[in-house]
Write a structure and sequence with these properties.
This protein is α/β, with parallel strands linked by helices. Helix content is 33%, strand content 27%. The chain is globular.
């Protein structure tokens, strides 16, 4: 069976004036559908860059990234935006919720570009909030929620479009121990019960223990 994600001969560099600064070198990686992988490594090792490339936020300097048969490195910016909206859910360290919107409205936001009606969008958002255990908080604003609850709203937003892949960049980095455990339990459930493929960047060994596999990055190379 073909892997869901195939990364081949991936190289990424950035230009600073006349300098070319390599960030990732010769990355080759295959990830099966339903996998839960944690990427670890020192700061500056390229973890977030790799995550952003697989998620279609950034484009490689060379190499290919094939996801479910689509070579996303060949897509233009407009095509990438459409592809991301259909296939990727994002969880960030700092939640990125819009403060003037309720929890429900924040979760509904990525659905606005979908062909769903307003009633269908609301139903999807309500279901996502129920999955993360925040159905009773849907009318609350971010300032009325704890950090752990805000991150759970962000997770609901990530799954509202029913993406195949969830990318999580330091999802527990801004949380206390108890809130971090709750969020990790939820991410684990998404993988186990909803078969979401999860790629997580973390510095936290306790978070990495929840993954099915851990890959180490060092100086832009996969160990």
């Amino acid at each position: 069976m073909q892997p869901l994600i195939q990364v081949q001969d991936l190289f990424k560099s950035y230009r600073r004036d006349s300098l070319e600064i390599p960030v990732l070198r010769n990355i080759n990686l295959e990830i099966a559908e339903g996998e839960f992988i944690a990427f670890m490594g020192p700061s500056g090792s390229g973890k977030t860059t790799l995550l952003n490339l697989i998620a279609g936020i950034d484009k490689p300097t060379s190499g290919t990234i094939v996801i479910a048969g689509t070579d996303i490195s060949e897509l233009n910016e407009t095509e990438l935006a459409v592809w991301r909206s259909r296939n990727i859910g994002f969880i960030f360290q700092f939640y990125n919720l819009i403060p003037v919107l309720t929890a429900l409205e924040n979760v509904e936001l990525p659905l606005i570009l979908s062909p769903l009606s307003k009633r269908e969008r609301r139903a999807h958002a309500e279901t996502a909030l129920e999955i993360v255990g925040l159905a009773e908080r849907m009318d609350h604003y971010p300032r009325q929620l704890s950090g752990g609850q805000e991150q759970r709203v962000a997770i609901a937003r990530a799954i509202a479009t029913d993406p195949a892949i969830i990318v999580a960049d330091e999802p527990t980095g801004d949380l206390d121990k108890n809130s971090a455990e709750e969020v990790l339990n939820l991410i684990e459930r998404l993988n186990r019960e909803l078969s979401k493929t999860i790629l997580m960047v973390t510095h936290d060994p306790r978070a990495a223990e929840r993954a099915r596999a851990v890959r180490q990055l060092d100086k832009g190379e996969l160990a």
